[in-house]
Design brief:
homodimer, 112 residues, alpha+beta, Arc Repressor Mutant, subunit A, 3-stranded antiparallel beta sheet, 4 helices, globular
Chain lengths: 112, 112
């Protein structure tokens, strides 16, 4: 049987996993107020790379959804937008992390 | 600002996370050959519930992608289709689990 290439299959599956996981990473990274640039660096330091082209639309979406709030501030003589979790954002982060833990425990159990 | 309801926001984010995670759970559950019904029970026992309407299309898709193979067998006097990981499926599972671990470690780091 000639199916899709394994590279494109893995890419698709990894992309699916990444979409849900990146949101959790962003929510975890905004417990303290940070600019988009500082968040990007913090994510990279933690092993999660994300382009600005992916990060900023996600921040905007999460703000529209009420999970983040943002504010323009002066920083190093430049105006920058800073982001912070709202109480709803904290609840969403905790809820998603508990879903994550459920799957994590399941993977262990399924493999044993 | 009146945004979307928090219930629908959480539902959307949980759905995104679930899509990528369910595939890993299914791949982890088919290290040994199982029927769809037996896999569904095994997943439920591990804390992951999935409807037949979601499970069977996913099994078909993963087989088309070359990650699973299936075979009809007699079981309790009934013909049933049994599923098993292929070597490509084992590689995909390991790759996705290593992505999962990267995010898991990142979440810990981001919250500290």
């Amino acid at each position: 049987m000639s199916g899709p290439s394994q590279d494109s299959v893995l890419e698709g599956l990894t992309g699916e996993l990444r979409r849900g996981s990146l949101v959790i990473a962003v929510l975890c990274g905004l417990q303290e107020e940070r600019s988009g640039g500082a968040l990007k660096v913090r994510l990279a330091d933690s092993g999660v790379s994300i382009t600005e082209g992916a990060l900023y639309p996600m921040l905007r979406r999460l703000e529209v959804q009420g999970l983040l709030q943002s504010q323009w501030r002066m920083h190093d003589s430049r105006k920058k937008r800073f982001y912070l979790l709202t109480p709803d954002g904290q609840r969403a982060r905790d809820f998603l992390l508990s879903n994550w833990r459920t799957f994590d425990t399941a993977f262990e159990g399924l493999r044993s």
